[in-house]
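Field notebook, page 334. I keep forgetting to write these up properly, so this time I am using the form the group agreed on. The chain and the ligand, adenosine-5'-tetraphosphate, are recorded exactly as supplied. Prediction of the bound pose follows.
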Amino acid sequence: MIGDKKVLYSAVQATGNLTIGNYLGALRNWVNLCDEYECFFAVANEHSITVRQEPAALRKHARELLTLYIAAGLDPEKNCLYYQSHVPAHAELAWILNCYTYMGELSRMTQFKDKSAKHEDNVNAGLFTYPVLMAADILLFQADYVPVGVDQKQHLELTRDIAMRFNSIYGDVFTIPEVYLGKTGRKIMSLQDPSKKMSKSDENPNAYILMMDDKDTIIRKFKRAITDSDTQVRYSDDKPGVSNLIDIYASCTGKSTEEIEKEFEGQGYGQFKLAVGEAVADVLTPIQERYADLSKNKDYIDGIIKNNAEKANYFANKTLRKVQKKVGFPELIR
Ligand code: AQP
């Protein structure tokens, strides 16, 4: 708790332009929850270097992401929006937690298996211990809730295990966080292969919709989306492509699956895909416009980055000092 509010923590990697998967699975929920909680939203640039990044591009993406947070509706005066690399306590706590995490636990993580298969030439230790840094992120802020997409649920369960293990040795140090999953958009799938999640690093740009895609591009990509040889707009396990589009449409319009099935009864996929494209564009266009305005205001964004880094450091250091004391690190005599 901070004051009388519970704490919410989440982050996105600064690895490129966000997709509607990142938006509907994570960011949009943050915006819906931020009035109720004390919120910390990081730009996870330390996580990003588990995969090789071009330094200038990483810097650029980090700034774009923070700007996008604001454009999407997070008020930087009320929510702490900051760069992970500006808060050294993340890396320091991650080191300590590494010593309370087992190799066996980390080797079971599906993201590690997927990413090491995808980047065979660079299966580095950071990729392996990524979930420990994520645990440190969350536990540093004593978060009660972590709104993420379903793909991150396994990492959150590990975070809870690490926190409980630590607390069982040292007493009540960490708040045990709970995952917050939205009602819709928990796992948006690739438009080209609905068995895979939509990912910003997919080689095929038709597989994802970027938050910065213009309306024509969005509609074109939905027109090309893989469906099936049937023509019925129906939510079903044997219709993964159509079900994914229904989920996206439901997330953007607030309509239920039943309402959507009824709306497109007897209409075929053409009309449906067009409607999904338009609904997505309607959600993204105002965000894109705000983003364009904010990007012009360099001093404003710089001020946010500076002030919020101070706030994040203050809260993160409080937890870090407590942990250091518990494990037996002496205090620096000043
Ligand atoms: N397809 C998705 N559906 C729902 N939620 C998703 N998220 C990601 N993809 C989907 C959620 O977005 C948040 C931030 O994710 P991230 O960028 O930190 O890492 P990621 O999960 O690795 O996202 P990507 O797009 O797949 O990135 P790359 O391609 O760089 O690896 C998380 O809350 C995640 O659940």
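OBSERVATIONS:
- The longest strand covers residues 7-13.
- The CA atoms of residues 141 and 316 lie 6 Å apart.
FOLLOW-UP: compare against the apo run.
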